[in-house]
């Protein structure tokens, strides 16, 4: 749960501008209104003096694109920040931050209710929860990490369930209403996925130094048998190669969750772009993609957890 709270805080922390007063919000950024988000200056079409029918068509197309991307983009709900020296640190409460809070709250409620009636022979929600935890421990943690798997299983379980509930919460069809920003997938924000990946990255380095010693871990970063003349070059390559792992975790989770939502909204928008008579076909395809997204939500949580265990396991022994 410490990791969950840290993700919520770090993902919303953004450096501001030089200290010349409180930063003025950029009107080109999305702002919450009665009917959702607006795009500030972009609301005015470039061709303000174009014919009415041409301007109407452009605004129609632009409105559809705005609604599609507004769903996956973040949006400031309550601006919060403070000065740290000459830097303004932004801790704005955004739509994705609220969705992380909702996912964490639902996760706590579900786990609390499932574990309320523990028994020797599990049944109901507790049976499902125990099955998932045992799968993470036996099939992911133990098989990839080895003898010290019990030390890292709590983190892997926390990452799996938190990502899973963020993915599933983002699929709830709840629009913006009276100040509430609506539901959107928090893992579709690269700031969230990069913080999750940095947790795995930091824990991976700690696990390696714990297993091999601080000096031994960095010494064996280069595989044995490399000629002495090539050792400095290989060390630099292997060192920067460490950062490809959190990059892969970040992009994989972010891209998969954003792509599915864009496809769903684009299929529904075909009824406006082409003809309302194709609504049955477009809605049917959108429903199919939606059901696929339910599966992708589970798969992406599994993939992130499995790769995290694999990266930790790779540091347990010297090359």
Walkthrough of the structure:
The chain is mainly alpha-helical. The chain has a domain at 95-314. It is 63% helix and 8% strand. The chain has ten helices and seven strands. The chain has helices spanning 2-12, 52-72, 95-114, 125-145, 149-169, 190-212, 214-219, 231-241, 244-273, 279-314; strands at residues 14-18, 31-33, 36-38, 76-78, 81-84, 87-90, 93-94. The strands form three sheets. It has a three-stranded antiparallel beta sheet. A hairpin with a 2-residue loop joins strand 5 and strand 6 (87-90). The protein is globular and about 70 Å long. The two termini are 33 Å apart. Mean pLDDT is 79; it is low at 1-21, 25-50 and 52-57.
Order of helices and strands: HEEEHEEEEHHHHHHHH
Q: Helix/strand-derived class?
A: mainly alpha
Distance between the termini: 33 Å
Largest sheet: 3 strands, antiparallel
Topology summary:
Elements: H1 2-12, E1 14-18, E2 31-33, E3 36-38, H2 52-72, E4 76-78, E5 81-84, E6 87-90, E7 93-94, H3 95-114, H4 125-145, H5 149-169, H6 190-212, H7 214-219, H8 231-241, H9 244-273, H10 279-314
Antiparallel strand pairs: 1-6, 2-3, 4-7, 5-6
Helix pairs in contact: 1-3, 1-6, 2-9, 3-5, 4-5, 4-10, 5-10, 6-9, 6-10, 9-10
Question: How would you sum up this structure in a few lines?
Answer:
The protein is mainly alpha-helical and 319 residues long. It has ten helices and seven strands. The chain has a domain at 95-314.
List its traits.
319 residues, mainly alpha, three-stranded antiparallel β-sheet, 63% helix, 8% strand
């Amino acid at each position: 749960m410490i990791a969950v709270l840290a993700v919520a805080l770090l993902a919303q922390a953004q450096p501001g501008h030089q200290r010349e007063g409180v930063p003025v919000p950029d009107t080109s950024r999305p702002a919450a209104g009665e009917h959702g988000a607006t795009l500030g200056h972009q609301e005015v079409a470039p061709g303000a003096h174009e014919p009415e029918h041409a301007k109407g068509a452009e605004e129609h197309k632009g409105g559809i694109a705005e609604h599609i991307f507004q769903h996956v983009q973040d949006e400031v709900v309550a601006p919060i920040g403070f000065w740290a020296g000459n830097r303004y640190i932004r801790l704005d409460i955004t739509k994705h931050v609220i969705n992380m809070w909702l996912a964490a709250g639902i996760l706590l409620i579900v786990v609390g209710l499932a574990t309320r009636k523990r028994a020797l022979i599990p049944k109901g929600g507790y049976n499902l929860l125990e099955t998932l935890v045992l799968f993470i421990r036996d099939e992911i943690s133990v098989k990839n990490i080895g003898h010290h798997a019990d030390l890292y299983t709590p983190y892997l379980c926390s990452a799996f369930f938190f990502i899973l509930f963020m993915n599933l919460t983002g699929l709830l069809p709840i629009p913006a209403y009276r100040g509430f920003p609506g539901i959107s997938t928090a893992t579709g924000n690269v700031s969230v996925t990069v913080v999750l990946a940095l947790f795995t990255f930091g824990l991976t380095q700690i696990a390696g130094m714990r297993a091999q010693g601080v000096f031994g871990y960095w010494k064996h970063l280069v595989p044995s048998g490399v000629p002495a003349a090539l050792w400095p070059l290989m060390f630099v390559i292997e060192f920067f190669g460490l950062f490809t792992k959190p990059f892969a975790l970040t992009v994989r989770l972010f891209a998969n969750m954003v792509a599915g939502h864009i496809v769903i909204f684009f299929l529904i928008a075909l009824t406006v772009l082409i003809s309302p008579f194709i609504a049955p076909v477009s809605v049917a395809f959108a429903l199919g993609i939606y059901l696929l997204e339910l599966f992708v939500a589970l798969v992406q949580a599994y993939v992130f957890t499995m790769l995290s265990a694999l990266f930790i396991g790779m540091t347990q022994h010297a090359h």
